[in-house]
Amino acid sequence: MSVSGPRIYDLVILGASGFTGKHVLKEVLKFLNTPSSPLHSIALAGRNPSKLTQTLQWATRPDPLSSATSIPIIAADTSDPNSLRSLCLQTRLILNCVGPFRRHGEPVVSACVESGCDYLDITGETEFMERVEERYHEKSVKMGSLVVSACGFDSVPAELGFLFNSRQWVGNEVPNRVEGFLSVESEKRIVGNFGTFESAVFAVSDVKKLREVRRTRPVRSRPVIPGPPPKGEIIEHQKKIGLWGVTLPSADATLVGRTLSLLSENPHGLAGLNESADTVEKRKAFWSSVKPAHFGVKISSKSLITVFGYITLGLIIGLLGSTSFGRKLLLKYPSIFSLGGFSKKGPSEEEIKSAAFKMWFVGHGYSNESLAAQVNTKPDMEIVTRVMGPEMGYVTTPIIMVQCALVLLSQRESLPKGGVYPPGIVFGATDLQDRLQQNGMSFDVISKSVLSS
What we know:
Elements: E1 11-14, H1 21-29, E2 42-46, H2 49-60, E3 73-75, H3 81-88, E4 93-96, H4 101-115, E5 118-121, H5 126-143, E6 146-148, H6 156-166, E7 174-186, E8 192-193, H7 194-205, H8 207-216, E9 235-238, E10 243-247, H9 251-265, H10 277-288, E11 294-301, H11 304-320, H12 324-332, H13 334-337, E12 342-343, H14 349-354, E13 355-366, H15 369-372, E14 381-390, H16 392-410, E15 419-421, H17 423-427, H18 432-437, E16 442-450
Parallel strand pairs: 1-2, 1-4, 2-3, 4-5, 5-6, 6-15, 7-11, 8-12
Antiparallel strand pairs: 7-13, 9-10, 10-11, 13-14, 14-16
Helix pairs in contact: 1-2, 1-16, 3-4, 4-5, 5-8, 6-9
């Protein structure tokens, strides 16, 4: 079942005047009415039309009088369900940039599902994503609404990066674990976006809610991974890539695990709405080449001192974020409590231009699956891959979100009819990786080597 009726817009950006939303708009405009683009009509939505007008002028400079300024602006508020439902009935797709999602996200998802509209967002908030899946998955399948969160730096580089590493294990080779090492590089000290800091603070208070969600949902399938479970190290030094890393509690590992769980239930991936025979064969070939492994992420640096700084920041957020008074302090004085790492102003344009990220995927496994079954046999193979791109929050995230939107709009018949899914299982077998490589990101195999015993 789906809600019929003409959709005026290909997509609507909700929250385009926010820190990230304005950069998403700027990225969207690159593909509006260009050859072979599915984007012909877009609109902006939010609770403050005057701010959206200013954002549109900013995004179209130095030519604010271009045709892009005729883009409609629609008043919509996440606290007004009727305005959201009216909005969703006018468009094929909502790009939701209104955070924190724990507070503002669910009403938007609900309106999209009720109206049969597709939904993408840029959240990395695990509790929100799992709550949405629990409450809306069945209805979104019925209504034909495809709901995909984490379509930004959280968590597409991790998902596609893991799949890229996994597919380098060919023939009888099998991975056991893949560890992601995230490093941020910049000529200038870059200040983080307040929204990211706010999400991290509330993630601490959401731990109990997340446990409740996980207690009530059905037990998920677990992929069969050859070899023993790896011993987790909180701090790790990877000589080959020259980085120290400390475990990063993020949504990345959870979403990769969810994609692998879905793959164990659907070995050929998720069937599309109305796939061609060629697309079905490509999908089956892609997912047949993916091999499951344990996965985790570490935030990394060449300097051990910097890693201890990350640990200190994590301890501050963990301790103060567990009480309402502590959260008020953190959110009132982000620059002080984050040791200058975050501020309410966010980074400058110069800081954004100077920054980049590298995410290394270090995979350990076996040259032959039979070795993994032997007792006390250590991995004898290592495959290192890397995903690189520009600044994470304001450049890479908009690039990813917009390319996900273009894939969804141009290849809708090849994607699931509806449902709440992680980006990996939805976009893994599409040309999303190729599109990202054409727009400033890279996926590289660094080394494939035999480990000494």
